[in-house]
From TrEMBL:
Source organism (scientific name): Cyanomargarita calcarea GSE-NOS-MK-12-04C
Record protein name field: Caspase domain-containing protein
Domain of life: Bacteria
Source species taxonomy: Bacteria, Bacillati, Cyanobacteriota, Cyanophyceae, Nostocales
Domain Peptidase C14 caspase: 26-237
SUPFAM superfamilies named in the record: Caspase-like
Amino acid sequence: MPPIGIGSNYSTETFKTGEAKLWLFLVGVNEYQDEGLPSLRYPAVDCQGLGEALAKATQGFPNKEVIVHNDFAAQPPTLERIRESLERIISQTQPQDSIMLYFSGHGMLEPENQEAVLCMSDTRISDLLGTGLPLQELLQMLGTTSANQQLICLDTCHSGDMKLLGGNRGTARSVNSAQTLFNPTPQLTKILQQRAAESKGFCALLSCDQGQQSWEFPELGHGVFTYYLMKGLLGEAADSHGIIEADGLYKYVYRKTLQYIDKLNQQLRLINQQKRSRGDSKLHLEYPLQTPKRIVEGVGELVLGYKGIKAESHKNRRAIIIDGLSNNKTITDLGRLFAGAGGFEVESFPASSKAWSDIRGTIQEFVRWNGESETKTSTQLRGVENKPTSLLYLRGRIEEIEDGEAWLILGDGVRLSRSWLRQELRRSLRTQQIIILDCPEATSLDSWIEDLQSGAEQGQCIIAVACGAEEPELFSQALLETLVAANPRVGLSVPKWVTELQKLLQTKNIELHVWLSGTQAVIDILPGNITTVFQDFPESEVAVKKNYEKSFSSPPQPPQSEQKSSVASAIANEPSNIVQPQFSLAVGTQEYTKLEQLVKQSIGPIAPTLLQKALTKVANFEELVDNLTAYFSKEQQQEFQQRAMAILETLICNVPTATNKTIDANSISKCERELAYSVGPIANFIIQEVLKSHPQISFSEFVKTLAKKIPNTKQSFEFEQRMLGEKNNTSTTRQK
């Protein structure tokens, strides 16, 4: 009889009291004795880093044991040592215990018997079954243990030292032929599915799907799959109660792995666009997809730890905002947004504590900062932290002189020469740079961008715009609008931001000048996982100019179906008395006004834009409050939620029971998130069209209809299986 899954509440209590024991068995293999098995760069480091992350996550578990085998550990990852450790675990586990087994290294398929084998340091290709650990044997061993909960994480099918950026741009080093011919992923999947069907307490996570590879990125210092396992265990995959369990961890790793590779490819596309503009035909190849895979049939939940109390730190992201033209309130809001959603430690000019004559020294100190002295992170976890990033925003007038030199004119007549700024920027060797030039009426921005470029090894993005004299603040307003429109929890890469800026500025015939270096690392303007959008500056308060929302709106708008204006413009033209966004969520005039005033008390005049943007995305009043809460500081969030729900209480109580609606809003939201991975932002449009044309559609038919909208047959099938499987699991849980 298969073991019964343990619910998360029970697991949590038994771990906290020490009644249950958590066994953590971690294996990582870099170097292989057989020359036919290519060396890998990061499995041993992955193993060490994951061990440290698990140690932090399980600090509250008094009864646990961590067993580590890797190239750098006291116990090497040989087959004999691995078997000895497994036998000890099996002999000592109790029914209430849980086991997490992690392996990073080569996996291969034995050609004659078609068995999937995990390769240890002394494995020989000529005798895979005798010198490696067949997965079937591993599962049989685990099947004899008393532990009801078992999680296996396999980071195999590595790309080795392949890379498409940096020194080998546009190419990939060849993979060992044996690795290519005998890829074990299909067999791994089959065996694990059989095991999962036999036990409700069994779950397996694979780093990639069939036909894919696990990517290793130098800028992460880890394989991407394990990198996000670590970040998830360090708290980012925790639920609202701070609990980290296997299901939530998988969903986090799946989403973040896809997002990271997508960000890299966005960056590559922008770099390729620059190459084409110069007539360069040697373009970079994009990274193939890597989609982590989960195999689970039961309903048990394995608790892996808790989110520790961690003070927010912005020490790896610094920004200087220099407004040399006027006391622009939009610039003030930009600084607050960079400090909040952007995670930057922000310094602004003009400032009461410093004179304009101090600006050169401030910039010099800024560019020499590299983040290391303020990063108090252990060696193995350092790769998990944000890469040091510096942002320099310069707003001023440009003056050209005859000898080819140019000057940026700031406050009090302070002048910075282009050559001086170039020299200073090139002294920054260890941080990613985001340089923004806001120079109304300038005519030589291309020369500035060309001069300020750093070497290809340094991550750098330069964005420059010259607005006309009649509307000099359009660019800063565009920066703020595109950043406010982004989700601070998801984050925003610089290439994606550039795309949004280009779309917005084209409506005003303003040219955006951009340079992005050929760097491996992703440059984020918003790093994600941030709950506070605006951070309060003690010396000022939010005061967006009244014409902010009008700057990018058109004259009298046509019907909404014909509008092509920006998001803010479209929202501004909605009727103010009754808001009727998606899913027929209606807010009356009185409640809407009260809610808008409540948001405005902390956020300021930009509150109407944020509120109406939220109304276009949510399905119910609870989601509306949750969406708006993200814009408040942690200290303000609880009070805002209570007051907002009090305002909406009457509406919530009077919402009629929609018996004709067969699909709940939560299921629709899940479908949209999953569909977006395959079709992008158009997912929301597709879902609305299906719901509109089939108002009485069942959930299963709804999912099947959406699956048909996915061009890739494999992804379409997986979407259908995943969504219908989750629905069935949810129903089973409720019945129990």
